[in-house]
From TrEMBL:
The chain crosses the membrane at residues 12-32, 44-65, 77-100. The lineage of its organism: unclassified sequences, metagenomes, ecological metagenomes. This is Uncharacterized protein. Keywords: Membrane, Transmembrane, Transmembrane helix.
Amino acid sequence: MSLTSLLLNSFLQFMLAGFASIVAMFMAIGFLNGVKVPAYHEAVLGVVYCLIPLSGIASIGFMIYQYNNSAAAVSSWWHLIPLPSIIIFVVYLVVISIIYKQSIDQLG
């Protein structure tokens, strides 16, 4: 990996982390609009929401570490680090929105 590709990949990963966190915020607003969820669900969503940009920054750190240790093309796999936190956030959000929207529909 050259220095140019490291800088470009780091910049793109940083932008992806910001974009993913904005998309996650608007997804949460859209899915939970008008749905009353308990505070512990909001706390879990908040923690996972904070993990999305932090995992992007961690992947940048791993790419820089791999660059300093003369790693080969394997260092490109570090771009996938934010993916599990995004998947966990989306699945958890969809599940709690389905559960609590069904409970609201049964009451009303």
